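Exam revision sheet. Question 4 asks you to relate a sequence to its structure. Input first:
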Amino acid sequence: MSPGVAGCFSPISLPADIVGNKAKTAREIPIPEDLVEILRDRASGETKARNRPLVELSHQAVGRGMKKAAVEVDIQPSRVHPHAFRHTYGRHCILQGVPVNILQKWLGHSSLAMTMQYVYLAGEHHSYLDRI
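Answer key, structure tokens:
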């Protein structure tokens, strides 16, 4: 396991059956230290609590919420998707100095070229900030 990120995140290994990704592979991701503690407490608890989800949330529920919020702020609902959070996370990591090869592992990309899209997007973001 790799060291924690900036002292506030710890890596956690997730088995393939929990991750639910396209490649059906296990993944190591960074999560906040306080969530690690919640998960440890949950894992050591009674079986009934251990098997209950921390949050009842689905891709579809997030999508519906995003589309509702989009309508409220006059954005076309067809332009918002839950996958945008993944791109935002990737750009944020690059802007915070996370090495591209580490981000590649966190996002589960098989090729570095796919992860390099986030470097491009982060650079574009910086160019807009410089103009303000």
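Marking note for examiners. Strands lie at 9-14, 27-32.
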